[in-house]
Write a structure and sequence with these properties.
Blueprint: H1 15-36, H2 51-56, H3 68-72, H4 79-92, H5 111-117
């Protein structure tokens, strides 16, 4: 009794081999992502807000009178955006901002930035 020889060699992988390969590929992808991200994995599209800057901004800031350093303590505000507020304020007079929405007129600020900054702003003492 002779055994029939296959006409071609079977290159198919067994299910266990495919599962092991999938696990290894997933582990390699995660390892590369962690090393490229400096040890951080961000799930959201934006990096998280720096909590140290939030605690620095616990007191409310008046954009009509605040200096560059005070404005930079606000979350998401760097030197360029802080200077844009000061330049706009200087070109419009002493109190160009009566409410948070007025920041929308400053170049580089949209309603998203206004909403993010609203909890940290005051426009008149005690407001």
């Amino acid at each position: 009794m002779s055994l029939a020889q296959p006409k071609q060699f079977d290159f198919g992988w067994r299910r266990a081999n495919l599962a092991a390969l999938t696990v290894l590929a997933l582990a390699a992808t995660i390892a590369l992502g962690v090393s490229a991200g400096g040890g951080r994995i961000w799930i959201h599209s934006r990096p998280p807000v720096d909590r140290n800057r939030l605690t620095e901004a616990e007191e409310k800031i008046n954009p009509n009178t605040a200096g560059l350093g005070s404005l930079r303590r606000l979350p998401g505000i760097g030197p360029v955006k802080a200077q844009a507020i000061i330049d706009y304020r200087d070109s419009r007079g002493s109190r160009p901002f009566a409410r948070a929405e007025d920041l929308d007129r400053v170049e580089g600020y949209g309603m998203g930035a206004v909403e993010r900054l609203r909890p940290y702003l005051e426009f008149f003492p005690g407001s």
